[in-house]
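Hi R.,

As promised on Friday, here is the backbone we talked about, encoded as structure tokens. Could you run it through your design pipeline when you get a chance and send me back a sequence?
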């Protein structure tokens, strides 16, 4: 007698497919380097380098330690990449204002307004300027980070100097003082409102400082 072959049941098929299915390895598909870097940046801006642990970064980014190391390196490297991301974001927010054809007073008003938007942002409260914050902390003992911060200061000075030079060429400003000096004073105002913003000074008071600074910068150099 020929014995009939029994067809596998549905449950048997399911079990077989479960055994045969290969296990997925590596990072989840949801992992996005730029999103994770943005989360790390938010955390560093809020708490600083020393107070931010790898566990904090892991929780914020949704990545375990090996994944963090694989994607960004150690904590210092992640801090540097976060700072570079901050610089790129700030540059993108400001570039059109520095390039647009505007009267010098209007241009300065818009630049400082955007700066305040950046410095006063944050779910847990105003975060100030990451460049200023880094200058007072990690840049003190780390030559590489210090060089990056000084580069950031120089970049802002150069952008302001171009604005004042252009205004002088258009006849909006007198031939003196030197645009470089005005640029450094404008940058110093940016740094001042950044520090005061992080200390939770109200926006109205910060705007009053900005208005006074613009009056001095434009008034002192006007024809």
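Update: got your reply. Pasting your designed sequence below so it's all in one thread:
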């Amino acid at each position: 007698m020929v014995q009939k072959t029994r067809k596998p049941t549905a449950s048997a098929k399911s079990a077989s497919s479960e055994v045969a299915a290969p296990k997925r390895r590596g990072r989840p598909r949801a992992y996005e380097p730029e999103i994770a870097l943005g989360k790390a940046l938010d955390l560093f801006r809020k708490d600083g380098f020393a107070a931010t642990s790898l566990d904090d970064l892991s929780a914020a980014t949704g990545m375990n330690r090996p994944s963090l190391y694989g994607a960004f390196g150690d904590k210092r490297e992640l801090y540097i990449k976060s700072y570079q991301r901050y610089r790129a974001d700030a540059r993108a927010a400001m570039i059109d204002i520095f390039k647009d054809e505007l009267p010098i007073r209007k241009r300065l008003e818009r630049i400082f307004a955007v700066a305040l938007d950046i410095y006063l942002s944050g779910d847990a409260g105003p975060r100030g300027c990451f460049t200023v914050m880094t200058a007072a902390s990690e840049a003190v003992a780390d030559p590489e980070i210090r060089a990056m911060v000084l580069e950031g200061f120089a970049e802002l000075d150069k952008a302001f100097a171009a604005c004042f030079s252009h205004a002088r060429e258009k006849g909006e400003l007198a031939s003196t003082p030197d645009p470089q000096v005005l640029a450094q004073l404008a940058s110093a105002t940016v740094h001042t409102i950044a520090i005061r913003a992080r200390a939770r000074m109200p926006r109205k008071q910060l705007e009053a400082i900005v208005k006074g600074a613009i009056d001095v910068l434009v008034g002192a150099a006007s024809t």
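One thing I noticed while checking it: The chain is about 70% helix and 0% strand.

Thanks again,
M.
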